[in-house]
Amino acid sequence: MSGFVLLLKIAFVAYVVKIGENMAVGRVITVFEVKCRNNPGFIYQKVGETYMCLYWSTTGNNFSNAQLDCEGKGARLAVVNTPEKRNLLAGKSDTWIGLDDRQIEGRYMWHDGTELTDSQRTDFFCYGQPDNWNDAEDCLHASIYCSAPHNINDGNCETINKYLCEKVK
């Protein structure tokens, strides 16, 4: 084997090892996974039967600034529209997600453009929520005071919470 070919093989193995940190041997690596892992702070995580590219903020922000920060990272506030996705938030501090009714009171829109369904409303919210307390709660967050999967609460958009961003394919 020539020195060049050996060097090329070593470089390829080093590259695969670098992008393959914490991955099972023999698993196919997708382009989405490589792109996700090449973004500082993002993690590639299996959620149910799918994978998500997630960024967990380490500091808090109000809802609008959290949304802007996610967009600046080429992402959006996370659409946690399944029980498996909401379970990601179990035990976390209050965390903004991509759901609000800022446009029309009572019409909750996910940040992927879909509307909250009746079954999601029943299955997702903390007991007695959403309540639009004091006519000032239009932004949604996972609450530490409720148990997943019923852990979503409406809150004042100016409250400082951590937030979860997701990149989409």
Automatic annotation (TrEMBL):
Asked whether the keyword ATP-binding is assigned, the reply is no
Membrane spanning stretches: none
Regions annotated as coiled coil = none
Q: Name one Pfam family in it.
A: Lectin_C
Stored PROSITE patterns: C_TYPE_LECTIN_2
- Give the SUPFAM superfamilies listed for this entry: C-type lectin-like
| Residues making up the signal peptide according to the UniProt record | 1-19
Which stretches make up the C-type lectin domain? 53-166
| Keywords per UniProt | Signal
Name the chain's protein. Answer: Collectin-12-like
According to its UniProt entry, this protein's organism is Biomphalaria glabrata (Bloodfluke planorb)
Gene from which this protein is expressed: LOC106068730
